[in-house]
Each structure stands twice: as C-alpha cells, then as structure tokens.
Amino acid sequence: MENERVWKSYVWHDDKCFFISTINRDYDTYEGVMRGGETLVWEYDWETDKRGAMIYQAGGVLDHQAICRCLINDGTILDQDDEGFLKFR
Prior knowledge:
Blueprint: E1 4-13, E2 16-29, E3 32-45, E4 50-58, H1 61-74
Antiparallel strand pairs: 1-2, 2-3, 3-4
C-alpha cells in the first residue's frame, strides 16, 4: 500500500519557517507489516520553497499538533515526558 498523506503544515516562529508532514505508512515489525502515522519536521525556506535539515521524527496526528504548538510558541521542539509525550510550557 502506498504512503497516504494525512496532514502538512507550515509554521513560523519569528522569521524561521518549519515544514511538518504526517503520513500513514507501512512498518515492518516482528509481528508482520503494520500501518501507522509518521510525522517528520524540517527547517524550511519559504522564499525558495526548499526543505532544509530534518530536525525531528515522531508518531501521528497528535504529535503533529503538539509539534506545531511547540514550534509556534518556542521555535524548538521541547523534550518528552516519561510517557513519550511532548512537554509544554
């Protein structure tokens, strides 16, 4: 099955832009193939329409939302708590 685009966002903090993309894709596991969400985050140059360095990788839609909030508020992705959730200020 092909990757399925779920959500993409462009967010800014001050003058810095970020591109956040979430897809559903197949994963090979010891139990077989499973399908799930993956969110990737890149620095992004809005003027040239080019991605820069990939700065983060996470799970699905809930991570996508949390990452957007972190980047908008702080310009960085905060640490995770003991259960793997992003911390907020």
